[in-house]
Amino acid sequence: MDFIAFLFDFILHVDKHLFDFVQNYGAWVYALLFLIIFVETGVVVMPFLPGDSLLFVVGAMCGVGMMSLPLSIVLLTAAAILGNQSNYAIGHYFGPRVFQWENSRWFNKRAFDQAHAFYEKYGGVTIVVARFMPFLRTFAPFVAGVARMTRSKFTFYDVTGGTLWVGGVTTAGYLFGNLPWVKEHLDKIIWGAILIPGLIVIFGAWRARRKAATAQA
Predict the structure, then answer these.
(1) Residue 70: pLDDT over 70
(2) How far is residue 51's CA from residue 53's CA, in Å, rounded to a whole number?
(3) What is the torsional sign of CA 135, 39, 74, 128?
(4) Beta carbons of 90 and 96 less than 8 angstroms apart
(5) Residue 106's pLDDT is what?
(6) How far, in Å, CA of 122 to CA of 109, rounded?
(7) What percentage of the chain has pLDDT greater than the value 70?
(8) Angle value at C-alpha 125, between 122 and 131, nearest 5 degrees
(9) Per-residue confidence at 206, pLDDT binned at 50, 70, 90?
């Protein structure tokens, strides 16, 4: 329970935790950030880590000279790409067996079904779009592996999406993260970054499931 409470606090106050980490450990922050982004995108049981808010806060910290913007973008883009490659490989290895899995502490079948419905509708573009949607971005490369998308095609979408996601969100933080209004309402922005894309994914999955049920009727 202590770990869950800390994780929840870290997600909502990622700016304070990162600031403290940089103050205490300096350049080791790059290794920590690489690990978080890699795990969030590369391990299908870790979709709750704070990807978007983390990148935005990193950009804001670069804006005040606490971190290097070019180094942050290069390292975290690499982490995002490698994470997706790992997730794809896991999905490719386990294949159709995942359709038999049920909800458990380590696998959210409902979230997987939502990502799969999104993938079936939009194909490879899902890998790019999913980068900007919490939960979906963790399951999208896994689904691509299950669906046997070719490695070369997946890598193209993976590199494109990872570059746009890390570069775009981090740069947005660099440009706007230190504005007084943004700093004052950062907690609300973080909640919005989590909830709004999540609701969009849920609605899209619901529509796809409803359409499939209607077609079968």
Answers:
(1) yes
(2) 6
(3) negative
(4) no
(5) 47
(6) 20
(7) 62
(8) 115
(9) low
Q: Where are the domains of the chain?
A: 2-216
Distance between CA 192 and CA 157 in Å, rounded?
A: 26
Rounded distance between C-alpha atoms, residue 151 and residue 29, angstroms: 31
Contact 54, 14 (CB under 8 A): yes
Here the tokens at position 104 are: 């458990």
Residues 120 and 100: their CA atoms lie apart, in Å, by 18
DSSP string, the chain: -HHHHHHHHHHHTHHHHHHHHHHHHTTHHHHHHHHHHHHHHH-TT-TTS-HHHHHHHHHHHHHTTSS-HHHHHHHHHHHHHHHHHHHHHHHHHHGGGGGG----SS--HHHHHHHHHHHHHHTTHHHHHGGGSTTHHHHHHHHHHHTT--HHHHHHHHHHHHHHHHHHHHHHHHHHTTSHHHHHTHHHHHHHHHHHHHHHHHHHHHHHHHHHHHHH-
CB atoms within 10 A of CB 79: 23
pLDDT of residue 213: 63
Could you report the per-residue pLDDT of 76-127, keeping only the tens digit for each? 999 999 999 999 998 888 765 665 555 555 455 666 666 666 666 677 787 8
pLDDT at residue 172 greater than cutoff 70: yes
**Rounded average pLDDT over 143-166:** 89
